[in-house]
Write a structure and sequence with these properties.
heterodimer; A: about 170 residues; mainly alpha; about 0% strand; B: about 350 residues; alpha/beta; 7-stranded antiparallel sheet; 10 helices; about 30% helix; globular
Chain lengths: ~170, ~350
Amino acid sequence: MLRLLGACCIIAGCGILGFSKGEQFRQRAEMLRCLQNGLNMLEADISYGSTPLPLALARVAEKVGGITQVPFAQAARLLKENNGLTAAEAWEEGVNKLDAEFTLTTEEKSILILFGQGLGCSAREEQIKNITLAREQLRMAELAAEEARNKNQRMWQVMGLCTGGAIVLMLI
Amino acid sequence: MTRLVIRKSLAEFAKEHEGMSEKAAARSVPPGSWLQMLPPGVRELTLQAAGPLLQELEEIRLRIGRPLLFRIGLQEYTVDHKGRPTGRLNEGYCVTRADLERTLQILSQSSLYAWEEELRNGFITIPGGHRIGITGRAVLDKGQVKTLKNISGLNFRISREIIGCSEEVLPYLIREGQVLHTLIVSAPQCGKTTLLRDLIRQLSNGNGALGWSGVNVGLVDERSEIAGMYLGEPQYDLGVRTDVLDACPKAEGMMMLIRSMSPRVIATDEIGRKEDVLAINHALQAGVSVLTTVHGSSYEELRQRPILQELLAWKFFDRLVFLSRRKGPGTLEAVLDGKTGERVK
């Protein structure tokens, strides 16, 4: 009875590890999609409302929620403090915070930081071009993340369960 | 002699600044002050250079690759890398492109796209009513300036409100319960706008000593300089009965106010275009008193300008108020009767 219980625990533990690894692939694709939604909202605020950046970023943070709100909320907070930071610096701080909470790939980080460098420092048309470019790059990154998810998510889930099974077989 | 005065003054600045640490300087910036609009490095240099004379500063100029300049009255000085004020401009701290770009980002809250109209006009008004003049490369669209890019210079014009500065002149501008049509004349930087602002406040609030109970005043602030409007809120006390039409062309604004707000007095600044004369004529027909300003230093000079010549010949203005800097900004030189040309003060 105890053996059976132990075996179940090992399989469940390894299965959870496999599933959580697989979940990360889903979350990455989801985060990239939410970032694009955030940029869509930012574009609307800049394009139609000419809303000042601190307010526009705060509004986007409120609407996107979850982990995706981190760079928007952090940049909005820093800009509102008016300590002499530029939008690029405030956004980079936000991206670093997101990176600390949800490890970004080098490519994702560079897309976001490059986007921040053009943030708020030019006329409306330029801002929209900058947002469109970042959104397009994030869409490509999302496609790659989706592909990786399709390829790896099921594999990690099965691998977790199989590894647990293999350990149990070895121990018996 | 002037040089001697400047040197003495600079020596005093330097003496007063000894021992003032950067931290102490940084701490002394009150929140919401115009100093917060400067990037941290330049802000510290400004605090160290201006120190106790901060309240006297009239202009700060930032030009790429050239020294940071401060102006108090007619005196200009710069600051060296150690924060010491100096009159030798070649020793001054040179403003960098990064300084300018950072200042612009702070001024615009990192939202240049939201300030396109202001950039087109060449200035931004910040909280407190101070105006920041901007120069750079103009971007044209169908022959009209669309915006500015490659910003090369900024001019912080620190404006001040002097409550009560119109006390001396106000009695000459009211007769039998009516405000007389008044033209304030002076060279630039002599206090025209400050005087006009205080006159508006007193005419709007009333003045017990003169038995004036206050009337509705309409202000057309074409250059956002008198009210210093920031997000729809005047940054100066303009009185309880004052309506402000901000950033609106004078002539059109005067007509709009007469139609919509039934003012007893209309105030505006810097008249000089043909359409201004038409609007003033319209105000006359509507029985509204006009309070306005113009650049100039003497009656003779005004008479040589075609548009003003017409207004003076027409004897529209009841009072002409002349200001100078002889004893500091806002020195009242004379008040003339516009009909007879006689001096009443």
